[in-house]
Amino acid sequence: MSKHARNAVGGSELTPAGVTQLMDVVADRTVHPALSDMEQTIARLRAEAGEACEARRVLANTPPTVLRDALLLRAARIETAR
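Above: the chain's sequence. Below: its structure in token form.
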């Protein structure tokens, strides 16, 4: 039992104030917001994975000369950023 919960319980009999404190402890430590954040993160990762899969498919069907020129452009852009 946490310190907050022990303080709320106090003696052997619960009081309305003690129960209110226990409810506050539960509300403050709810996992619902964390689970909601995780679900949003998973949805975003799935969407990004879908975009990456589509990009790979397009790149796989891109002519070699275009890929070579794109790599040169990308390398120049990276070098400029340094």
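The chain has a mean pLDDT of 85.
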